[in-house]
Design goal:
Helices cover 32% and strands 20% of the residues. With 476 residues, the chain is an alpha+beta fold.
């Protein structure tokens, strides 16, 4: 029997995962990508010998990546070299700092050093959140395209573990008293583009996942994961069409910018969900939904390497005020928080010999804010560089050799990210599972990526690709 033809719109991590799995099963997979290479936000910017990851820099839950490669008949280690980071990251507060390790004993010792008396709360967190995770994980692997899917046994067992209506921050009160320490175990809500004071307590599984599975870097940058998936798809007989901008999806037909039409048995959309609904499918505008924050990005190629941990988070002096300004005030606060990834601490392949590769992320409001970034981009960049010098003691301005900026406007207009909301739809409980855009939108139309089930973040995006591949394989 002839295998079905599958068209995938977009070569981001969700589309690549689905393509890899389906190509391995003999489906005729063709991927149409508007850019000249794979990855989307999990791609790379290469300039003057520097390679910058565009988006994700934390690889969590590495076993999920290993599993999808195994299901495609491959091994990640045949394509990728991993660095198991220890410490996973350094957190810098107003008056102190703490290094967080995946090894519980090291983290416990650090907590005892910086926040004496609070270490017992960490022990309780690891025990209790492991139980929550064990209930939650199977729920993240389910298809919720039909209302009755909500009544699966895994979700019914997990519901009592939601701690509803607590937020992550309130839930941390069960473990810690110190506010800085609470931030150390709730800043992870930024992966979801949400405030710790609003993000549901169920997502306390994220800091547990970090400590349980570790955080990895990939040699060459996390964009190499997309390149590895591309190699697997080509090996399995899949095809790529680059510089192929899809403008419309109708039924089982896609229409390119140049008016070409291509038909398939099944179509998978891997575009940003808000963009896909409005531009590709001509469906309802999702503006009324709750969306994540955006990010101001600075990619710096330096004249020399600098002495910073691989991952460092710098908290503003009044973190709640800063977070509230983003999510409630939709405005910019002078006392910014920011994150720096110093890739060349371990990985010398992402910069010319002896030089440094720095990635800087600042959470900012999405484009519902109506901030005119064309007017303030330079001033905001200068303020950020000054704040980086203040917090690190390093004069980055003198070291910069190559510089790239991405603003929320760029995310929306150049990268097709709806409202510039880089972490996609918010992850409040009314926008999860069945109440999130479905993996199966119509009979022959599917959706993968951070805007669908199970949510944003690389591991869950891989799961979205795996869920869709399983649905299609069952209908063969």
């Amino acid at each position: 029997m002839k295998k079905k033809k599958i068209i995938i719109v977009g070569a981001g991590p969700g589309g690549l995962t689905a393509g890899m799995l389906l190509a391995n099963q003999g489906f005729a997979v063709e991927i149409f990508e508007k850019n000249s290479d794979v990855g989307g936000r999990n791609g790379a910017i290469v300039k003057n010998g520097f390679t910058f990851d565009i988006g994700p820099t934390f690889l969590m839950m590495k076993p999920v990546l290993d599993e999808v490669f195994a299901e495609a008949g491959e091994k990640t280690t045949d394509y990728l070299e991993f660095y198991d980071l220890d410490p996973m990251y350094r957190l810098i507060f107003k008056n102190n700092f703490i290094d967080i390790s995946r090894h519980a004993a090291k983290t416990r010792a650090e907590i005892k050093r910086v926040f004496p008396g609070e270490e017992k709360g960490f022990d309780k967190l690891m025990i209790r959140e492991k139980k929550r995770f064990d209930y939650a994980y199977p729920c993240l692997q389910q298809n919720y395209s039909k209302f009755y899917n909500l009544f699966n046994s895994h979700l019914l067992r997990f519901l009592p573990k939601l701690s509803f209506p607590n937020s992550m921050h309130k839930e941390l009160g069960k473990y810690f008293k110190n506010e800085d320490l609470k931030m150390a175990f709730t800043f992870q809500s930024k992966y979801l583009g949400m405030s710790p004071w609003q993000c549901p307590a169920a997502f306390m599984i994220i800091p547990f996942i970090e400590h349980h599975y570790g955080i990895y870097h990939v040699k060459g940058g996390l964009s190499e994961i997309s390149q590895a998936m591309k190699k697997v798809i080509l090996k399995k007989g899949g095809k790529f069409h680059f510089n192929a901008n899809v403008k419309n999806v109708t039924g089982t037909t896609i229409i390119l910018e140049n008016k070409e039409k291509h038909c398939a048995d099944e179509i998978i959309i891997n575009a940003d969900v808000g963009y896909a609904y409005k531009k590709l499918l001509k469906k309802k505008d999702l503006t009324s939904k709750k969306f994540s924050c955006s990010t101001f990005m600075l990619y710096l190629g330096l004249k020399k390497n600098v002495d910073l941990e691989h991952h460092t988070v710098f908290f503003s002096d009044n973190y709640k005020k800063y977070v509230d300004s983003i999510f409630k005030g939709m405005a910019l606060d002078d006392d910014i928080s920011f994150y720096i990834r110093n890739a060349t601490k371990y990985d010398k392949t992402v910069a010319p010999t002896g030089k440094g590769n720095i990635y800087v992320l600042v959470p900012v409001p999405n484009n519902k804010s109506k901030i005119d970034w064309s007017k303030i981009k330079t001033a905001f960049r200068d303020k950020l560089i000054a704040k980086m010098k203040e917090k690190t003691g390093i004069d980055f301005e003198e070291l910069i050799e190559t510089e790239i900026i991405i603003t929320p406007d760029d995310w929306e207009n150049k990268y097709n990210v709806f409202l510039g909301a880089t972490f996609n739809l918010a992850h409040n409980l009314t926008q999860m599972l069945y109440f999130r855009p479905h993996n199966q939108l119509e009979k022959h139309l599917f959706l993968v990526g951070g805007g669908t089930n199970p949510g944003s973040g690389l591991p869950t995006i891989y799961e979205s690709g795996r869920i869709v591949a399983k649905i299609i394989a069952k209908t063969q």
